[in-house]
Write a sequence for this structure.
């Protein structure tokens, strides 16, 4: 079984347990690295051509505008194919109640029919939002399994939970 962990993450200013803090590494990236450590396979970071605002509230405004417009931000890079992967872990922060539009940009580039999609989402209390529903829409023909919601400010202490969930998907 071939596994890919793909993620979108935000370092820098983030909402963290009631405050705005500056993160050297984004919560979703930390979780994605834990997933890959637990199940092996390849890892790929989704990066947009146009960077989001460094200031947290300005980034939130950009994310909300992208959602309203159903924007599909241009990505810096894409794998040539996902054909060799059976299971794809998809990680993202909860932005405006769903995945960042960059994740939609990525997923819509590929035929995911027959793949198992396992979402994990960092947030500060908003859970998965409607992202699992949205994944089922954008990943038609794939099996979207129950995702894992990770409290962003507790990501570093969540390796046991992340590992157990990731291994249960396989």
């Amino acid at each position: 079984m071939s596994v890919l962990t793909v993620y979108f993450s935000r370092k820098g200013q983030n909402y963290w347990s009631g405050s705005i803090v500056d993160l050297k590494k984004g919560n979703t990236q930390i979780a994605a690295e834990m997933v890959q450590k637990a199940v092996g396979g390849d890892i790929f970071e989704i990066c947009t051509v146009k960077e989001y605002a460094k200031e947290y509230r300005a980034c939130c405004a950009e994310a909300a505008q992208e959602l309203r417009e159903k924007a599909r931000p241009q990505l810096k890079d894409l794998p040539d194919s996902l054909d060799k992967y059976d299971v794809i872990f998809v990680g993202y922060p909860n932005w405006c109640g769903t995945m960042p539009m960059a994740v939609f940009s990525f997923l819509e580039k590929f035929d995911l029919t027959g793949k198992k999609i396992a979402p994990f989402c960092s947030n500060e209390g908003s859970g998965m939002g409607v992202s699992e529903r949205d994944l089922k829409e954008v990943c038609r023909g794939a099996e979207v399994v129950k995702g894992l919601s990770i409290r962003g400010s507790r990501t570093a202490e969540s390796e046991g939970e992340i590992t157990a969930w990731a291994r249960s998907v396989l």
Notes: The helical segments are 27-39, 56-69, 101-107, 131-138, 159-169. The chain has a mean pLDDT of 97. The first helix runs from residue 27 to 39. The radius of gyration is 15 Å.
